Amino acid sequence: MHINRTEAPEYKSIDTFELLPINTFCLDNGIKVHVMQAGSQDVAKLDFLFPAGSVQANKPLLASITNKALTEGTHHLSGAQLSEKIDFYGAFIGQQAHFHHSIVTLVTLSNFLPQTLEILEDVVKNPSFKQKEIDTLLNKRKQEFLIEGSKVRTLATRAFTQNLYGQNHPYGNHLTLEDFNALTRDDIVRFHQNAYIPKGTHIIVSGQPGDDLKTLLNKHFGQVWSDAEPLPDPKPTMIDKPKRELIIKKDDALQSAIKIGIPLFNKEHPDFHGMQILNTVLGGYFGSRLMTNIREEKGLTYGISSFIMTYKHSGFLMIGSDVKAENRPLAVKEIFSELKKLREEKLSDEELTLVKNFLIGDMIRNFDGPFATSDNYRGLIDLNLSSDYFHIFFNELKNITGERLQELAQTYFKEENFITVIAGK
Amino acid sequence: MINIHKQTLANGLRVVVHVDKSTPLAAVNILYHVGSKNETPVKTGFAHLFEHLMFGGSKNIPSYDAPLQMVGGDNNAWTSCDITNYYLTLPAANLETGFWLESDRMLELNFSEESLAVQRKVVIEEFKQRYLNQPYGDIPLLISPMAYKVHPYRWPTIGKEIAHIENATLDDVKDFFYHHYAPNNAVLSVSGNVVPDEVFKLAEKWFGDIPYRSLSKTTIPKEPEQTAARQQSVERPVPADMIYKAFHIGGRMDNDFYAVDLLSDVLSNGPSSRLIQSLVKEQQLFSEVNAYISGDHHPGLFTVTGNLLPGISMEQAEAAINVELDKIATSAVSDYELQKVKNKIESSLVLSEISFLNKAMNLASFELLGQAEDINDEIHKYRAVTSHDILDSARATFRPENGSTLYYHASK
Asked: A14 and B277: CB-CB below 8 Å?
């Protein structure tokens, strides 16, 4: 069979975006449950989002240590007994503290859901918060903090967020060694009482939880175990005139970390979707402008990328790369020249089509199956956005033009808006 | 149970297909049976450098990434000491694009000086970013040559030193390609929303005319049995001391693999595991401990690591680890504890079957080592392990003369 290897096979462009149906219902106490039921395996994932984030906590480490300490023992079970039980069912409980909520995740084989949910109820409602367990967690967290702090990229990121949000709002990510001594068991007990409450809590369920889900959830989480109102989650006071350039010296560093970015907005802003697409062109995929120029043409780095970070009240775009010290000025210069190009030249039709097609494929990957869908859907909860948000993005993606992207670059990629942070040499 | 369809082309390429209709996507995975253990001691890091060059364009296609992105696809690759694995995912309707791209780079690379010059620099920056400019990043560079004296596992995949990468020439690259990249040294696996017969047709169309190649016949030397304990101390500017112990175990296809794997689970898989309960929670000696096996094709390593808490001496830390290792090498685990680790394995196997890409990678790997169908026997092999098997494995493994210990001190 003779084949022409120089020509690409024909391909189909994807015109529709399908999202798994998301069913919602409320428990007896008002907790909102969002269900994505699908999947070939009898497994379920339940994410409990409590209004217990670091913004509500308003004290460094309080949200994350409270969240982690939940599984270290209850009034009925020691930490060791608790983990024995969960491990024996082959289940997994994970925790993450975010800015506006803290998450407790249960992943379990569906047939063990009744047993594992019962354990989870105990974990959420009756943690013992023993001083010894708190100390262990603080020691571990302190060591992680120190290890992270010896990486140039972490130093640069911390400086970048503090420069935008200051040291007083959690968005600034300001943490010192003294904070580890200032956290008390009383703080934790009180925060747990005030934040792990029915009001403001969401449960996101994905996979195959079985037909008894509502009954089971009501049994374990449907009562009014507290009638407290969620704690306030104030906006940050943005630093009025953030510094345009910051250098953090680290003389033993073999590479310098570069972080260059601009303050932006949250997901509700009308330009957000367009900026996501523009960010992809700039540094959001392997074929991006930055990756092509700085890695694939010049070999200055192992990787360079840009991303948009959004929080409930704010957001920013950040470009990041690690390069050897002597290449740092060239890399910075090239980053700014790529930004300039986006302002001055309209995207070719070919590049526009490529980026659109890539992003459409990426969307399908990001929403493939119930677990992936729930991970993405979770990002909407803070803002009370519905899943229509994803369809709106898809439509905007299908229809966006080169002119529009250039206009966005001219509006937001003004050179004087950028903040440059270097850590290393 | 994972459904499996298989064919082998005349040129020796093995093709494995798995149908998963729950996704609109498909994955194409190509595994080449070449890794850092196929390198010579004076040219290390080559298999991995080569992986980078595979994206620098092939005989008939100047760019690998752009045409794939154009059809909504994404891709990546990784190199280990045994294999180099390339994978892509894309909307199932555009599957043929994946075949076009992958077959052309198996046929012949565009051997360009320019691409080599750039990727040498990129890999050197990767070497620095991941191994030298990272707290604890140089551990693989220290532990491999301690544990292995003869076998090529004595250098890590990234390479022994930066100079080897700097000195790589285009002739080296060509030589490497023709000795290792061949249909008869690869497994192609495809999973997702596909029809097996159509996949086999595409495989024949795009890969069928790639010639069979004669492969490198270099034999890899066997590592002699270790007879005395090995130790090394280093001092680095890191925030905390760390201890790292590596013991010789068998290879992936050895009968005791499953017992040794469960042994590592008893020690550190999950919060109720022995090392975490005893060393982190009760005695509060470490902020973190880990026990894991390498799973290498040739005899590999059982590794135990711990990050020491401030005020804990290295001697104290090591003694406490040794107490736990002695305990598990002296008395058998209880039926309950054995059942617990088996339950965990079962649920992680169920979870691993959710991702169609994961299944494609695993199927290729099983086909390479024996036959793809073995993937469905894994659970039975784990279930068959007895507490006595675990005891035997622990006894055989945790002997001082079988181990290397790295004391990684934080400089004051």
From this structure: no
